[in-house]
Amino acid sequence: MDITKLILPLSSISALDKSGKSSLHYAAKSGNVDCFKFLLPLSSVNALDGNGITALHMSASLGHADITRLLLLFASTEFPDEEEPTPLYYSTLNGHCDVVKYLLPHSLTSCTDSTGRTSLHLSAKKGHLEVARVILP
Protein backbone atom coordinates (compact mmCIF):
# COMPACT_ATOMS: atom_id res chain seq x y z
CA MET A 1 0.00 0.00 0.00
CA ASP A 2 2.79 2.43 0.88
CA ILE A 3 4.47 1.73 -2.45
CA THR A 4 1.21 2.50 -4.27
CA LYS A 5 1.00 5.90 -2.59
CA LEU A 6 4.66 6.50 -3.35
CA ILE A 7 4.61 5.75 -7.09
CA LEU A 8 1.15 7.10 -7.94
CA PRO A 9 2.30 10.74 -8.24
CA LEU A 10 4.99 9.57 -10.67
CA SER A 11 2.66 7.60 -12.92
CA SER A 12 -0.65 7.86 -14.71
CA ILE A 13 -3.63 6.24 -13.01
CA SER A 14 -5.05 5.57 -16.46
CA ALA A 15 -1.95 3.67 -17.65
CA LEU A 16 -2.63 0.16 -18.96
CA ASP A 17 -0.37 -2.84 -19.38
CA LYS A 18 0.00 -4.78 -22.66
CA SER A 19 -3.21 -6.71 -22.00
CA GLY A 20 -5.20 -3.56 -21.24
CA LYS A 21 -5.32 -4.06 -17.48
CA SER A 22 -5.35 -1.02 -15.21
CA SER A 23 -4.03 -0.62 -11.69
CA LEU A 24 -7.60 -1.22 -10.47
CA HIS A 25 -7.66 -4.58 -12.29
CA TYR A 26 -4.49 -5.57 -10.45
CA ALA A 27 -5.77 -4.33 -7.09
CA ALA A 28 -8.94 -6.39 -7.61
CA LYS A 29 -6.83 -9.39 -8.58
CA SER A 30 -4.56 -9.07 -5.55
CA GLY A 31 -7.37 -8.94 -3.02
CA ASN A 32 -5.64 -6.10 -1.18
CA VAL A 33 -8.66 -4.16 0.11
CA ASP A 34 -6.67 -1.14 1.33
CA CYS A 35 -4.93 -0.70 -2.01
CA PHE A 36 -8.21 -1.22 -3.82
CA LYS A 37 -10.00 1.41 -1.69
CA PHE A 38 -7.18 3.85 -2.40
CA LEU A 39 -7.38 3.36 -6.19
CA LEU A 40 -11.17 3.08 -6.51
CA PRO A 41 -12.06 6.80 -6.52
CA LEU A 42 -9.22 7.50 -8.97
CA SER A 43 -10.13 4.80 -11.47
CA SER A 44 -12.70 3.87 -14.09
CA VAL A 45 -14.54 0.99 -12.38
CA ASN A 46 -16.13 -0.28 -15.60
CA ALA A 47 -12.95 -0.33 -17.69
CA LEU A 48 -12.50 -3.47 -19.78
CA ASP A 49 -9.12 -5.04 -20.37
CA GLY A 50 -8.17 -6.47 -23.77
CA ASN A 51 -10.25 -9.58 -23.07
CA GLY A 52 -13.40 -7.73 -21.99
CA ILE A 53 -12.72 -8.34 -18.30
CA THR A 54 -13.55 -5.75 -15.63
CA ALA A 55 -12.22 -5.45 -12.09
CA LEU A 56 -15.57 -6.93 -11.00
CA HIS A 57 -14.96 -10.02 -13.15
CA MET A 58 -11.52 -10.42 -11.57
CA SER A 59 -12.62 -10.03 -7.96
CA ALA A 60 -15.59 -12.36 -8.48
CA SER A 61 -13.49 -14.99 -10.22
CA LEU A 62 -10.91 -15.02 -7.45
CA GLY A 63 -13.38 -14.95 -4.57
CA HIS A 64 -12.49 -11.52 -3.21
CA ALA A 65 -15.84 -10.87 -1.52
CA ASP A 66 -14.91 -7.55 0.12
CA ILE A 67 -13.67 -6.08 -3.15
CA THR A 68 -16.68 -7.43 -5.03
CA ARG A 69 -18.98 -5.82 -2.46
CA LEU A 70 -17.21 -2.46 -2.89
CA LEU A 71 -17.35 -2.69 -6.67
CA LEU A 72 -21.07 -3.38 -6.62
CA LEU A 73 -21.56 0.08 -5.11
CA PHE A 74 -20.11 1.72 -8.23
CA ALA A 75 -19.67 -0.73 -11.10
CA SER A 76 -22.15 -1.70 -13.76
CA THR A 77 -23.41 -5.25 -13.70
CA GLU A 78 -24.73 -4.94 -17.25
CA PHE A 79 -22.29 -6.16 -19.86
CA PRO A 80 -22.62 -5.39 -23.57
CA ASP A 81 -21.61 -8.80 -24.86
CA GLU A 82 -24.10 -11.44 -23.74
CA GLU A 83 -21.79 -14.16 -25.06
CA GLU A 84 -19.09 -13.31 -22.51
CA PRO A 85 -19.19 -14.84 -19.03
CA THR A 86 -20.48 -12.55 -16.27
CA PRO A 87 -18.95 -12.04 -12.81
CA LEU A 88 -21.70 -14.35 -11.47
CA TYR A 89 -20.61 -17.03 -13.94
CA TYR A 90 -16.97 -16.78 -12.81
CA SER A 91 -17.78 -16.83 -9.09
CA THR A 92 -20.10 -19.82 -9.62
CA LEU A 93 -17.49 -21.63 -11.71
CA ASN A 94 -14.94 -21.26 -8.93
CA GLY A 95 -17.33 -22.02 -6.08
CA HIS A 96 -17.10 -18.65 -4.34
CA CYS A 97 -20.34 -18.78 -2.37
CA ASP A 98 -19.86 -15.45 -0.53
CA VAL A 99 -19.28 -13.64 -3.80
CA VAL A 100 -22.31 -15.32 -5.40
CA LYS A 101 -24.43 -14.03 -2.49
CA TYR A 102 -23.30 -10.46 -3.18
CA LEU A 103 -23.78 -10.75 -6.94
CA LEU A 104 -27.20 -12.42 -7.04
CA PRO A 105 -29.28 -9.29 -6.36
CA HIS A 106 -27.39 -7.58 -9.22
CA SER A 107 -27.32 -10.41 -11.75
CA LEU A 108 -29.65 -12.35 -13.97
CA THR A 109 -29.47 -16.00 -12.98
CA SER A 110 -31.11 -16.91 -16.28
CA CYS A 111 -28.09 -15.72 -18.30
CA THR A 112 -26.47 -18.58 -20.15
CA ASP A 113 -22.99 -19.30 -21.40
CA SER A 114 -22.21 -20.24 -25.00
CA THR A 115 -23.39 -23.82 -24.33
CA GLY A 116 -26.72 -22.72 -22.82
CA ARG A 117 -25.80 -23.37 -19.18
CA THR A 118 -27.03 -21.06 -16.42
CA SER A 119 -25.14 -20.41 -13.19
CA LEU A 120 -27.28 -23.08 -11.53
CA HIS A 121 -26.31 -25.63 -14.19
CA LEU A 122 -22.67 -24.68 -13.78
CA SER A 123 -22.73 -24.98 -9.98
CA ALA A 124 -24.29 -28.45 -10.27
CA LYS A 125 -21.78 -29.56 -12.90
CA LYS A 126 -18.86 -28.36 -10.79
CA GLY A 127 -20.27 -29.91 -7.62
CA HIS A 128 -20.63 -26.59 -5.82
CA LEU A 129 -23.66 -27.56 -3.74
CA GLU A 130 -23.47 -24.51 -1.44
CA VAL A 131 -23.49 -22.21 -4.46
CA ALA A 132 -26.44 -24.07 -5.98
CA ARG A 133 -28.38 -23.65 -2.73
CA VAL A 134 -27.73 -19.91 -2.77
CA ILE A 135 -28.83 -19.59 -6.41
CA LEU A 136 -32.06 -21.56 -5.98
CA PRO A 137 -35.00 -19.29 -5.14
UniProtKB/TrEMBL annotation:
One of its GO terms (biological process) is exocytosis. It comes from Ornithodoros erraticus. One of its GO terms (cellular component) is host cell presynaptic membrane. This is Uncharacterized protein. Keywords: ANK repeat, Exocytosis, Membrane, Neurotoxin, Presynaptic neurotoxin, Repeat, Target cell membrane, Target membrane, Toxin. ANK repeats lie at residues 19-40, 51-72, 115-137. SMART domains: ANK. The keyword Membrane applies. It is found in: Target cell membrane. Its main location: membrane.
